[in-house]
Amino acid sequence: MPYNTFTLSEIKRKFGIQSKIVDEKIILGQHQDIQPSNWLKETLDYNVPLALAISTEKARSELIVMPILVELRKITADTISIFSGIDFNVDKEQGLNGRCDYIISLNEEQLELTAPVITLVEAKNDNINSGIGQCVAEMLAAQFFNQKNSSEIKAIYGVVTTGSIWKFLKLDIDKKQVFIENREMYLSDLSEILGVLLDIVRGNRR
Q1: What does DSSP say about strands 155-161 and 18-22: parallel, antiparallel, or unpaired?
Q2: Burial group, residue 127, by CB count within 10 angstroms (0-12, 13-18, 19+)
C-alpha cells in the first residue's frame, strides 16, 4: 500500500492519527515575508504560463515547484538538501513506501538522503484535497525515518500544491495529530510562501 493509495481516514484508522483544520497561524506562527529574487521572478514569469498550458503534474512540478525550492536552498546558503522524485521506502509492512515528489532535509548532504527530514512537498495537478492523505502518509514515514536515524524532530511539515495553489500541514509527533491549514496560498502570495518555508527550516534548527 504505497503512499499514493492512502486516504486521510485510512491513516487515522491505521496509525491513530487525529486531524484538525486550523488557522494557518496555529501551524506556522508569525513569519516574515521573503521577497523573491529577480531570478525566481523571471523564471516563474516564463514558466507558469507554460506549465498551465501543458497542464500536467510533471510540468507544474518541474516548472513551478522546483524553482521555488531551489530559491529556498539559495536563501539558506545551501545548508539544506532537496530531493526530487526519489523512492522513500521506510516501512513496507505498514505501507510507508513509494516515491515522493520532493523531500527537504536539514542535512546539506545532497548525494544521499539523510536525517533529519523536515518537509515533504506533494505536487498535484488540480485537486489539493486529493493529495492530503498521501502527504500525511509521507510525513509519518519521515517521522519514522528520523527516529530510526536517531534524529528527533518535534514536527514534520507537509505541503500539497498544484504549483499555483499551496496548502501547508503540520504533524505534531507528541500529540499524534496532523494540523491542516484552512487557508490556501497562491503564487500571488509568493513572498509569504518563501517566508513560511524558511521559517520551517529555521524553526527546526532551534
Answers
A1: unpaired
A2: exposed
> What's the one-letter identity of residue 197?
L
Length of the chain in terms of residues written: 206
Which residues are paired to 165 by β-bridges? 186
**The domain spanning residue 154 has which CATH number?**
3.90.1570
Which one-letter amino acid corresponds to residue 195? Answer: G
Angle between helices 190-205 and 66-75 (to 10 degrees): 50
157, β-bridge pairs: 119, 170
pLDDT digits (tens, 9 = 90+) for 43-56: 999 999 999 999 99
Q: Chunked in runs of 10, what are the mean pLDDT values of the chain (206 residues)?
A: 88 91 73 94 97 93 96 96 95 92 92 90 83 93 91 87 93 89 93 93 71
Q: What pLDDT shows up at residue 101?
A: 93
The number of domains in the chain is: 1
Domain that holds residue 115: 3-205
Position of cell 527516529? 147
Q: Name the amino acid, one letter, at 196.
A: V
How far is it, in rounded angstroms, from Cα 104 to Cα 162? 18
* Amino acid in position 198: L
pLDDT at 202: 83
